[in-house]
Amino acid sequence: MWRTLNAQDLKPHWVRYRLERHDAEFERKMPGSLVVCREIAMTLASINGTPELRPVHTVVIDEQSGVQALSPTAPNLPPVPPEQPCSRRDHGYVQHGTVLSLAALELHDGHFIAQLCDRHLSRKSIGFLQELDAYYPKDVYPGDSG
Questions:
Q1: How does DSSP assign 32-89, residue by residue?
Q2: Residues near 59 by Cβ (< 8 Å), separated by ≥ 6?
Q3: In 3D, which of 55, 63, 68, 137 has the Cα closest to residue 105?
């Protein structure tokens, strides 16, 4: 079987990923997202060219619930050219339940905040937002009380 698969350059154990659009409103929402990206580029250009009185922060926040926490049962094996052109991974894993993943990315400077929680509770999300709020200075806008 190995010779037959190898002769045909077939690798049934390899996985090729693809991305499907699940949002029917994607085409309508896309221009708004692109405008945000363009505004970020223009803001960075103005900050680099002249001093900016008010710093701008654009944060993308994502929450993923039900993420499987898995660990392999054996270490990956490195490639061994020319016999094994890719690294090898055992199919076995240990499941440690599911976790809640919370992440925030500052689009201007790349600062990243993330939390993994073993339960999906509102207080976990509130704590994450408080951590995010604590990262940014309170006197962003002159005359603003916070």
A1: HHHHHHHHHHHHHHHHHHS--SS----EEEEEEEEEEEEEESSPPBPPBTTTB-S-B-
A2: 104, 105, 106, 107, 132
A3: 63
Q: What is the pTM for the complete model shown?
A: 0.53
Question: What is the SS3 assignment for 112?
Answer: strand
Greatest CA span in the chain, whole angstroms? 75
- 3-class secondary structure, 30: helix
pLDDT digits (tens, 9 = 90+) for 58-68: 788 888 888 88
Tokens encoding 30: 């896309």
- Which helix (H) or strand (E) segment holds residue 7: the answer is helix 2-7
Q: How far is CA 86 from CA 44, 60, 70, 74, 79, in A?
A: 41, 35, 22, 17, 5
* Separation between Cα atoms, residue 59 and residue 110, nearest integer Å: 10
Residue that has been written with the tokens 């049962």 in this structure: 73
